[in-house]
Every structure is written in structure tokens, then in C-alpha cells.
Design goal:
By secondary structure, the protein is α/β, with parallel strands linked by helices. The protein has two domains: 50 residues; 168 residues, no CATH class. It is built from seven helices and five strands, in the order αααβααβαβαββ. It has a five-stranded mixed sheet with strand order 1-2-3-5-4, with helices on both faces. α6 packs parallel to α7. The longest helix is centred in the first third of the chain and has 48 residues. One of its GO terms (biological process) is xylan biosynthetic process. This is Polysaccharide biosynthesis domain-containing protein.
Length: 243
């Protein structure tokens, strides 16, 4: 008798619970739909207020100098990079002088004059190439004059000459870069400049670094890297081009 009297009550409780669950689900679904609609409206408004900008044009052409260098590096078994010991030479100086101004002659190109190296050495013996001054007004054939003004106006504490390319006879070589690095170093108001030349195992870099940066200023050589310390020539009148 007790179970029969409680059965209708239990059924009503279950039905009432299901009704509340259904009601909560409807309320939750309505709130979610409203939130999504508001977000969509906000996104549409934002898109209308901030239309998408056209994508910038992309450069699809590779400079010939870079293309030639890439072809060389991917087809050779020897990658002409500095060894850890060679890097350590400039790293020690950089750590000692930092913060400082460090100029690097990296990947680039000069006029194709490697096969004129002997003639340029002879021209470097002329008086115009031994005049200490701004490379922009130098009358020496070896001076590089096409850089932005801030390159010439800065007093460089370190200069690394590791380019342009010089691995074949038609490559530009580093004669102009070596000479200009030496001229910049001598032309600073005071102090001294550490100049590094890489790949001195090659005839051009060997000959030009000794001639224009001077063996008397050579302080260290590690592998294919030479380290020169060149003082200012503006502070001492009558100082010779090489000691």
C-alpha cells in the first residue's frame, strides 16, 4: 500500500526535474546564440571600420652578386668561413672595447679588378695614395667613395675586411676595402683602430694587407686572419704611412 501511494509522487518529481533541465538548456542555448551573434556583429563592424590592406609587393629578383656567391657556396666543398680560433681574435678585441663602432666589409662587390692587382699596387705607391684624409676626397684610385656619409663620418674602433669575393680571378677581391680600411683608421682624430683581414692565404689579401695596413702594425695572425692595430696619423705630424 505504501509503495503504491508513493509511485505517483516520484513520477511527478522526475517529470518536474526533466522540465527544469529542459528549461535551463533553452536558456543556455539562447544566451550562447545571442553572444555569438553579438561577436559576429562586432567582427563585421571591425572589418568595416578597418578594411584589409593590400599585401606589400614581394621582391622576386636576386642581385647578381648574391646569386653568384650562392652558386659558389653550394658547389664548393670548402666553405670560406672563419674558424673558431680566427673568430676568437676579433671577439677578444670586441669584448675589450665594447661598446664600440664595428665596421664590417661583408657580402658585396667592387669593380672587377682582381686581374689588375699588380697595377693597383703600383698606383698605391704614388703620393696620392699616401695622403691621409677622407676617402671621399682622396685622389687615390683605391679609395672607396660610394658609401653613405655616416660611414665616413664615424670613427670606427674595429674594421673587419671579409669581402668582397676573391676566390677566382674575375671576382672583385678586397684591394679597395683593405686600402679604405687603412685610410679610415689613419684619418681618425685620435686613438687607434683594430683592423682584421680574412683569407690572407690568398695572394691578393696577403700582398695588399701587408702593403697598405703595414707589417709594422701587424700584431697577430691566427690561421687565415690577420690583426693590425693602426694609430691615428692626424695627431702626429710627419708620421710615415707605414712605421
Amino acid at each position: 500500500m505504501r509503495s503504491k501511494n508513493q509511485s505517483p509522487i516520484n513520477t511527478k518529481i522526475i517529470i518536474l526535474g526533466l522540465f527544469f533541465l529542459l528549461l535551463l538548456s533553452v536558456i543556455a542555448w539562447s544566451s550562447s546564440s545571442s553572444f555569438i551573434a553579438e561577436n559576429d556583429d562586432a567582427s563585421d563592424s571591425a572589418a568595416a571600420a578597418c578594411p584589409s590592406l593590400p599585401s606589400p609587393p614581394t621582391c622576386t629578383k636576386t642581385p647578381p652578386s648574391l646569386a653568384n656567391a650562392l652558386v659558389h657556396y653550394v658547389t664548393t666543398n670548402v666553405t670560406p668561413q672563419q674558424t673558431l680560433k680566427e673568430i676568437s681574435v676579433s671577439s677578444r678585441v670586441l669584448e675589450k672595447k665594447s661598446p664600440c663602432n664595428f665596421l664590417i666589409f661583408g657580402l658585396g662587390h667592387d669593380s672587377l679588378i682582381v686581374n689588375q692587382a699588380d697595377e693597383l699596387i703600383e698606383s698605391g705607391m704614388e703620393d696620392d695614395c699616401k695622403v691621409v684624409g677622407d676617402p671621399r676626397i682622396s685622389r687615390c684610385q683605391l679609395a672607396l667613395k660610394g658609401f653613405p656619409d655616416n660611414i665616413y663620418d664615424t670613427e670606427w674602433d674595429l674594421i673587419m675586411v671579409d669581402a668582397p669575393t676573391g676566390y677566382h680571378d674575375e671576382a672583385p677581391g678586397r684591394m679597395n676595402a683593405i686600402y679604405t680600411a687603412g685610410l679610415m683608421s689613419r684619418n681618425r682624430k685620435n686613438g687607434e683602430t683594430d683592423v682584421f683581414v680574412h683569407d690572407v692565404d690568398r695572394a691578393i689579401e696577403d700582398k695588399f694587407s701587408k702593403f697598405f695596413l703595414c707589417e709594422g702594425y701587424l700584431t697577430e695572425q691566427e690561421g687565415r686572419l690577420r690583426h693590425f692595430v693602426i694609430p691615428s696619423h692626424r695627431t702626429g705630424s710627419g708620421k710615415p704611412f707605414c712605421p
